[in-house]
Amino acid sequence: MKKRWLTTKEAEKYSNLCFKTLKKRYLEGLISAKKIGNKWLWDRESIDAFLGEDSLKEELLLHEVK
């Protein structure tokens, strides 16, 4: 079973997004995270959902352009 919460380093590697982008998406309400002390933990399921939606949006835009 995959762990649900990822460290920032794990989330960056998993999503191929940098911390700045992850935090921006968190502030926009698109990715769930929690900050404990000075460390961030990122919700893998919300990253998956965000990346899935992002891929779908890109695919739809490509079809509109054609």
Description:
The chain is of the alpha+beta class and 66 residues long. The chain has one domain (5-65). 59% of the residues lie in helices and 18% in strands. The chain is built from three helices and three strands; from the N terminus they run βααββα. The chain has a three-stranded antiparallel beta sheet. A hairpin with a 2-residue loop joins strand 2 and strand 3 (39-43). The termini are far apart. The model has no long low-confidence stretch (mean pLDDT 87).
Short description:
Residues 5-52 form the Helix-turn-helix domain. By secondary structure, the protein is of the alpha+beta class.
Characteristics of this structure?
alpha+beta; single chain; three-stranded antiparallel beta sheet; 59% helix; 3 helices; 66 residues
Helix and strand element order = EHHEEH
How confident overall, as mean pLDDT? Answer: 87
Number of strands: 3
Shape: globular
Poorly predicted ranges (pLDDT <50, ≥5 residues)? none
Sheet with the most strands: spatial strand order: 1-3-2
* Domain module count: 1
Major sheet description: 3 strands, antiparallel
> Pairing-aware structural class of the strands and helices?
alpha+beta
Strand content: 15-25%
**Whole-angstrom Rg:** 13 Å
Task: Assign a percent range to the helix content.
Answer: 55-70%
Distance between the termini: 41 Å
How many helical elements?
A: 3
